[in-house]
Queue: 4 jobs
Job 1
Amino acid sequence: MISSVFRLNALAIFLILPQIAFSASSEAGETAFQKCIACHTIGSGPLAGPDLKGVNAKRDNAWLVRWIVEPDKMLAEGDVIATGLLKEFNNIPMPPMGITETEAKAILAYIESKSGENSAAAPEKEASPTPVVPPVQGDIETGKNLFLGRQALANGAPSCITCHQNTEIGSMGGGTLGPDLTKVHSRYGGDVGLKSVLLSTPFPTMRGVFSEKPISESEAAHLIAYFKSTNGRTEQQINEKFLIKGIGIGFLGLILVYILISLIWIKRFKGVRIPMVGK
Ligand code: HEC
Ligand code: HEC
């Protein structure tokens, strides 16, 4: 009698444990997935990156785990699937997000659990209590001023021009640590996709500074308006040849100036000497 009850309990625990384990890992997955929402949704459409609904069925599990942990290495190795996706997604490389293998598995469990739901249930996220504030109307000029640092970012982060170029401001103006942002509006999927990445700046180099000093909603709106206005321009590759040529021209100029000055001095010298010595 006792032993049969015990056996039943044991059986129940045996049946329930995996459920608990699964939901725990799915919960950890939900937390870790917050690092991905700047670029991905599960069933609400693509942002800068693809919609991940049903991705577990589409790709090999080991591929997915490795991709989430080290996308940069897989792209560098020229992985065929990754390279194809990179082309499809406007050459935006998915950044390494500092995810461990365990976290990656938890994220995949979470994506799997969310993929089962139909898309009608997906906008649950938007239903969270966000205050009904009308979206800030972006202003191109303010956006440009923020980009250039004429207007400081409210949270004290360095201005974009420190590290980024935009054709609109001319050829030698911006920094080159980060990519040219002239066409970033279309590359990141317009207003929605770009806003999403600007608010959380999931880029490895920027994260260091901007996770502590995030861009505000209104700053993002102004920057987006500015980037939208520059989108039609052609990105200018600042190539080294051009720079070397520039330096070369500078050097030539220096020599010319030197020759000119010498000529003037010779003339002056003569002008003074001849009357004196000629006497
Ligand atoms: C800055 C934007 C960005 C962030 C942040 C990001 N991704 Fe991606 N992701 C992409 C892009 C873009 C692609 C398409 C491949 C490429 O261009 O590198 C992609 C592709 C993927 C794929 C492959 C989809 C498919 O159809 O095979 C998976 C899975 C994925 N990302 C998961 C994640 C997870 C999980 C995170 C968070 C830890 C994350 N991504 C964070 C941009 C991002
Ligand atoms: C300290 C240097 C630095 C500053 C300041 C900075 N960025 Fe970046 N940003 C980078 C780097 C480097 C990258 C390339 C990805 C990486 O390594 O993180 C990047 C990537 C980006 C990208 C993705 C571009 C692409 O083509 O994939 C966007 C968008 C962006 N930055 C916007 C901004 C904006 C807007 C500002 C100003 C509010 C800004 N950044 C300020 C360094 C910076």
Job 2
Amino acid sequence: MVLNKQRVAGISLLIAASLLLAIGCSDPNEAPGNTPATAPPSDGQIQRAYTMKCSLCHGTDGRLMASKAPDLSLSKLSVEERVALITYGKGTMPPQKGILDDATIRGIAKYIEQFRD
Ligand code: HEC
């Protein structure tokens, strides 16, 4: 059998496309194959990032106050102040610069507003 180069290329493309689709499908909130690197983080991604990076000290409702963390429901900081604080950290609160991207940090800064009374 003669190897058909076009056919081989076609199959490789198909494999590459299905791999991309599989990656795109890993987050149920995202449409398959519709997640360019610049896409804003989804609500689910922001919530997961908060759970992983913040709930340890602040709790899922912002009121845990572990490791001397203040009650976020009583916070009076503006969005910009929160973005700066989350980015650079303060005291024992660890900085997220280089760990979370700017869009996710901003998303979390807005997300925690729901903890306020
Ligand atoms: C290791 C524990 C710890 C973790 C993890 C942590 N924080 Fe904090 N957080 C603190 C402490 C302690 C302070 C008080 C800092 C100070 O004023 O010295 C604080 C302060 C804050 C404040 C300011 C509240 C106010 O009005 O004074 C906000 C907002 C905040 N944290 C949000 C977050 C977010 C969002 C995350 C996740 C990205 C996070 N924190 C992760 C311990 C933590």
Job 3
Amino acid sequence: MRTLLVGFGVVGVALLGWGLRVGTVHAAPDEAATPQFYATRVQPILKEHCYRCHGGMNHRGGLNLATRAGMMKGGHDGPVVVAGDPAKSLLVRLIRHEGPANDPMPMPPKLPEISGADIATVTRWVKAGAIMPDDVPRR
Ligand code: HEC
């Protein structure tokens, strides 16, 4: 009897594992890989923390984050976003304080600091392909 129960237990665990795998396979496509994610989650963060120096009339470091063209062109040091690769994206490295330490310096350079949750959102967006609407509306 005991062996039988253990047997059922193993089958149960196996079935559970299979069920979880099937669940992942059928999961919805990553919402971070949509232009809506940029418009509703990422752009508000950039607007709040970056546009005053990288939008409108101000293109500090040669970088305008307020338009798609500006985002793609990057700044004095070249492209700042490498789609799918946060570790190679200067924008992500600077907000995560992963260097370079001085030139250019960590962003934003002054308070208020960008929150951990916001950093995670921007990182997730770059990792998912940095997809944005064609016409990022100007501020
Ligand atoms: C108070 C003004 C200010 C704010 C706010 C600010 N930046 Fe900057 N940013 C600068 C300046 C100045 C530079 C040029 C620094 C340098 O070259 O050493 C720069 C440079 C950069 C660069 C490097 C461009 C290049 O090619 O060298 C990136 C990427 C960047 N900023 C991203 C951001 C992001 C993302 C935010 C918002 C989280 C932000 N910045 C907020 C002033 C600002």
Job 4
Amino acid sequence: MNHEEHEGLEGIPGGRPHPLYLQAFVIFVAFVVSIVCVSLAVAASVWDGVYTEEQAKRGEAIYYQRCGACHGPSLEGGDMTPALVGGVFTSTWNDLALSELFERIRITMPLNQPSTLSRQQTADVLSFLLKQNKWPAGQAELPRELEPLKEIQIQAIKP
Ligand code: HEC
């Protein structure tokens, strides 16, 4: 047995842990901490009352001016247009952050005039969609900035 092999074997039982084990352990701890932080950050969901009744009313007016012709008077969708209420809609967006749906509307809708809604109009029309999907209203308005919207999770089924 040459000298190098001898040292390699000696590192395993007892004595000081091999530096690679320490590194792996540190990475593992960092990983667990980051998972905990992420799950705390998205603790809020659409079930927590994230918009107000008044805001949904403003959103309703915007909906019938800008969206209803395609998505239908009851948000039921049409030939080529998806519904914005019901199981297909809520399961499409399930587990995503509300910021994703906000950006989908803000950037791509109305299909014939994309990116023409202001952030406030987008938040208002999104509130109306939340209300129509039976997610409850609350005390504070839905924000129009992305950072807080990233922390609200869409959950099709009440947790
Ligand atoms: C000219 C017709 C038209 C108008 C007006 C329109 N949409 Fe759409 N919308 C569509 C079509 C078609 C799709 C699917 C194809 C696509 O996304 O390009 C869609 C997709 C969507 C989606 C994605 C649905 C899903 O689950 O995949 C959302 C959300 C949405 N629209 C919201 C709105 C809102 C809110 C407005 C009003 C501000 C609006 N749309 C106005 C035609 C329209």
